[in-house]
Description:
Elements: E1 3-5, H1 15-19, E2 24-26, E3 32-34, H2 44-53, E4 59-61
Keywords: 3Fe-4S, Electron transport, Iron, Iron-sulfur, Metal-binding, Transport
Function: Ferredoxins are iron-sulfur proteins that transfer electrons in a wide variety of metabolic reactions.
Protein name: Ferredoxin
Amino acid sequence: MRVWVDDQCCRGHGMCLTLCPEVFTLTDDGYAEAVRADVPTEYEAAAREAIECCPEQAIREG
């Protein structure tokens, strides 16, 4: 599984970081980014939850 954050959509809510800190972080500007584009198997469920819970639908799989 691969993920990425659309920086044009992200508004820095941080939900992804709360749900899956092993894959997501916030930049110095407060916006999300994927620190691991290739999500390890053990974090796939949490990454999918982050995708589903993103208020701006800024996280993409693929």
